[in-house]
Design goal:
The complex is a heterodimer of chains A (about 325) and B (about 220).
Chain A (H helix, E strand, L loop, with lengths): L3 E8 L9 E8 L4 E5 L6 H6 L9 E6 L2 E2 L5 H6 L1 E5 L10 H5 L1 H5 L4 H14 L4 H4 L9 H13 L5 E5 L7 H18 L2 E6 L2 H7 L2 E6 L2 E6 L1 H6 L4 H7 L4 H7 L18 E3 L4 H11 L3 E6 L2 E7 H16 L1
Parallel strand pairs in A: 3-8, 3-9, 6-7, 7-8, 11-12
Antiparallel strand pairs in A: 1-2, 1-4, 4-5, 9-10, 12-13
Chain B lengths: L1 H4 L12 H32 L4 H13 L2 H12 L3 H25 L3 H9 L4 H31 L12 H9 L3 H29 L11
Helix pairs in contact in B: 2-5, 2-7, 3-5, 4-5, 5-7, 6-7, 7-9, 8-9
The complex binds adenosine-5'-diphosphate (ADP) and magnesium ion (MG).
The site of magnesium ion has 4 residues of chain A, from helix 1.
Amino acid sequence: MASITFSQVTKRFPGADRPAVDTVSFTVPADEICMLLGTSGSGKTTLLRMVNRLGDPTSGQVLIDGVPTTEQDPIHLRRGIGYVIQQVGLFPHLTVEDNVRLVPSITGEPAAKSRPRVEALLRLVGLPPAEYRRRYPSQLSGGQAQRVGLARALAADPAILLMDEPFGSLDAITRGRMQQELLRMQQELHKTILFVTHDVDEALTLGDRIAVLAEGRLVQVGTPVELLATPANAFVRRLMGADSIVRQFEYLPVTLALDAAGVRPHAAESITADTTLLEALLRLIQSEQPALVVEEAGRPIGHVTLGSISRSVRRHRSGVQA
Amino acid sequence: MQYLLDTRHWILGEPTSITSLLVAHLRITAISVLIGLAVAFPLALVAVRHTRTYLPLITVAGILYTLPSLAFMALLIPFTGLTATTVVIPLVLYAQVVLIRNIVAAIQAIDPWVVEVGYAMGMTTRQVQWRVVLPLALPVIVAGVRVATVTTIGIATIAPLFGVPSLGYLIFQGFNTSYADQVMAGVILVSALAILTDLALLGVQRLLSRGRRVSPATA
Ligand SMILES: Nc1ncnc2c1ncn2[C@@H]1O[C@H](COP(=O)(O)OP(=O)(O)O)[C@@H](O)[C@H]1O
Ligand SMILES: [Mg+2]
């Protein structure tokens, strides 16, 4: 349980003509995954590194649970914040096990005490301890190394996890699998995760919330649906690919396409309210029915038809362009 | 071979016995390499921090390395006389080029992301230096120490010319008395010492390189 608040945060590097991060303010609520999305050089990494004080703001404040980070000892602060980066940065001279128990070991915890926890973490990230514990980083694939990196970041059971393009150098299939596993783990772990990416699909897949950065400024922050449905400006619309029917179908929920006529009792099949438009469409086609009932918590809240889906997408596109 | 196998030549406490000369040879080598390291370390750290100093530093060390050892030591006699210092100063200076090069290379080869993660996980600067930088740099530094040590063992052979005992004594004494077997004994012992020391340090390097490739020295 920990929220992160950026309050008027600005970071200026010496010699740069514009700030790397420019008066950014927003809050990441506890236990949420917040994606920092933007093109290369937009200030995502700089913003992330201010949370664990690898860099301090030139002005403004980062607050964790309301306490400014600059009032906390950086060493102590960092031991309570997990850090995962694209380059992984495993210690090549330590075994997988010793890499994972690094934070406990620097605080002086004996190996025997952290052993069960290390094994549980390796299992959590999908690496059977018996097989991987004694390996060195050079004996791991890219995906396995990043799993170890994640286990290491979780070792001290931090409330906050900072992830800087952690899956950026993995192949598409491995990346997709890791994204799904992160979501699975988050259901157990309930960490506050700040996750940097330049990949819109990754942001839409993982984010409870997405903060869009451009040239150091916060352009928009909102849920994936909000960003797709009501992009703040042309930049966000283009970045999100909000005009793309495919993307809308993939990420927008079926509740945006309910038929105005209310519940039709004779529709035989039902779907849940969090179903995407794409899934709803496929189900409609497969079922060969004119309509599907949409249920929320087991209660029907409306229905969708091919017509209502197509109208919603058209309405949505014209709304965006208006 | 006769000379080597004769147990009378191995008597402990006898100043010119093989045993005493071997110990003396090892001692002069160890002293030179250790002082060499003590000098090279701070110089290398300066070169890492201020990259512009590296080229002048390594150029001077390189020029020193090319000086003929016999002439170098002879030049020192007016200042330091026929003492171990006369032998050790050139040996220390010869080792600089390979030691500085390897220490600098060892530190520069460390993945900066590993250091960044160290700090990000809450390591103190001291913990980063002792738990990350040093263990990662050591194998490459030892590779340099290997080269420096073997070179030093070779040059220390001429130490007896300056009144300092080493295995070279057997060679010079053998020449003076036309005792070929003694000369051969000296040559064999110096070579064996160099080879065995090299293997021992290779073992150390292997041990320190766990999890990684064993790197050759940057010569
Ligand atoms: N240590 C630094 N010194 C100077 N400029 C930097 C430093 N780190 C980042 N920058 C600059 O700040 C801007 C934002 O960089 P960064 O936060 O790394 O962007 P992103 O992670 O979104 O790609 C860039 O223009 C970059 O060149
Ligand atoms: Mg970045």
